[in-house]
């Protein structure tokens, strides 16, 4: 084993900054209006999302942490010795400790995130907490092509993708994403992925429209962000957050619905939004366990194991390339 642990390494792939202006013009120009959900996460949106994760109605975060905590030893036993843990969208690296503590002598941790500051702060904290670990922070858009740091620790590579973030892709986008990652990880690699499960609308709709209104503020922040950054003139107080579960497809659809006619100005563009018209901002797809395993199989992953909570709200899958 190389003995160069204890010193944080940083690989900056300088991910292209997404162009909010271009996306907004495109999204407001169509017959049905939409804004891609990745624009929810500016500094204010990220803080609001952290608050969502603490809400009583938003079960995914604490349920996934509970599943990881309760089953980490069993996961470690199934996995055996592992060398490199690659985390996709690592953010504050809040969940990785559960695996690092349980797995058999992981040699390196590779957090990947598009937000440079968030990534570096979290990677430094992990490096301090685990001085013997080789931490290689990668600033990149993990949907784009880039080389992973070499896995030369002599064991398996494990990819960790928690949070049911895959649920914000459509099933066909999720298939393309998993196919890309099964190829990139290579034969014998493993993936631990959190996937939210289908359930009754009476649980799902409050999870995406909480009583304290934090999720509504998170959604509306997207329009406030456009006003701040691009000089648009959305009357944010005249939009209402709406979350509807569609049980036929397993999709929670999230929209901002105009409460009055508005003309939105952006540079030389004028966009008319009629009273009652929806701007679609996010989908959160929910899966049956067997449907997710079938999707993963199409993408080149075999299902090795799956863990859930007692109420079967959430699932954590172990997949193998
Ligand atoms: C990040 N993602 C998995 C969240 C979800 O549950 O789909 C985003 C979210 N949107 C509103 N609440 C949470």
From TrEMBL:
<dbReference type="GO" id="GO:0052706">
    <property type="term" value="F:L-histidine N(alpha)-methyltransferase activity"/>
</dbReference>
<keyword id="KW-0489">Methyltransferase</keyword>
<protein>
    <submittedName>
        <fullName>L-histidine N(Alpha)-methyltransferase</fullName>
        <ecNumber>2.1.1.44</ecNumber>
    </submittedName>
</protein>
<dbReference type="InterPro" id="IPR029063">
    <property type="entry name" value="SAM-dependent_MTases_sf"/>
</dbReference>
<dbReference type="InterPro" id="IPR035094">
    <property type="entry name" value="EgtD"/>
</dbReference>
<dbReference type="InterPro" id="IPR051128">
    <property type="entry name" value="EgtD_Methyltrsf_superfamily"/>
</dbReference>
<keyword id="KW-0808">Transferase</keyword>
<dbReference type="GO" id="GO:0032259">
    <property type="term" value="P:methylation"/>
</dbReference>
<dbReference type="Pfam" id="PF10017">
    <property type="entry name" value="Methyltransf_33"/>
</dbReference>
<dbReference type="InterPro" id="IPR017804">
    <property type="entry name" value="MeTrfase_EgtD-like"/>
</dbReference>
<feature type="domain" description="Histidine-specific methyltransferase SAM-dependent">
    <location>
        <begin position="21"/>
        <end position="320"/>
    </location>
</feature>
<dbReference type="InterPro" id="IPR019257">
    <property type="entry name" value="MeTrfase_dom"/>
</dbReference>
């Amino acid at each position: 084993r190389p003995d160069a642990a204890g010193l944080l390494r940083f690989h900056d792939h300088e991910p292209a900054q997404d162009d909010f202006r271009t996306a907004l013009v495109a999204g407001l120009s169509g017959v049905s209006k939409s804004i891609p959900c990745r624009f929810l996460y500016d500094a204010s949106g990220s803080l609001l999302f952290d608050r969502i994760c603490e809400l009583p109605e938003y079960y995914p975060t604490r349920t996934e942490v509970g599943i990881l905590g309760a089953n980490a030893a069993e996961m470690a036993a199934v996995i055996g010795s592992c060398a490199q843990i690659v985390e996709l969208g690592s953010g504050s690296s809040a969940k990785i400790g559960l695996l690092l503590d349980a797995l058999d002598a992981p040699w390196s941790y590779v957090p990947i995130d598009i937000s440079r500051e968030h990534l570096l702060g979290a990677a430094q904290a992990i490096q301090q907490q685990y001085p013997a670990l080789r931490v290689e922070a990668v600033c990149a858009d993990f949907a784009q092509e880039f080389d992973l740091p070499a896995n030369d620790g002599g064991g398996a590579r494990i990819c960790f993708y928690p949070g049911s973030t895959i649920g914000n892709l459509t099933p066909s986008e999720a298939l393309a994403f998993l196919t890309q990652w099964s190829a990139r990880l290579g034969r014998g690699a493993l993936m631990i992925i959190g996937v939210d499960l289908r359930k009754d609308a009476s649980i799902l709709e409050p999870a995406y429209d909480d009583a304290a209104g934090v999720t509504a503020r998170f959604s509306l922040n997207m329009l406030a962000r456009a006003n701040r950054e691009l000089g648009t003139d959305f009357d944010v107080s005249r939009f209402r957050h709406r979350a509807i579960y569609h049980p036929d497809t397993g999709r929670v659809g999230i929209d901002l619905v105009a409460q009055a006619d508005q003309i939105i100005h952006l540079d030389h563009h004028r966009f008319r939004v009629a009273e009652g018209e929806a701007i679609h901002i996010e989908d959160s797809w929910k899966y049956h366990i067997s449907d997710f395993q079938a999707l993963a199989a199409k993408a080149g992953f075999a299902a090795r194991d799956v863990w859930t909570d007692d109420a079967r709200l959430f699932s954590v899958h172990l997949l193998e390339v």
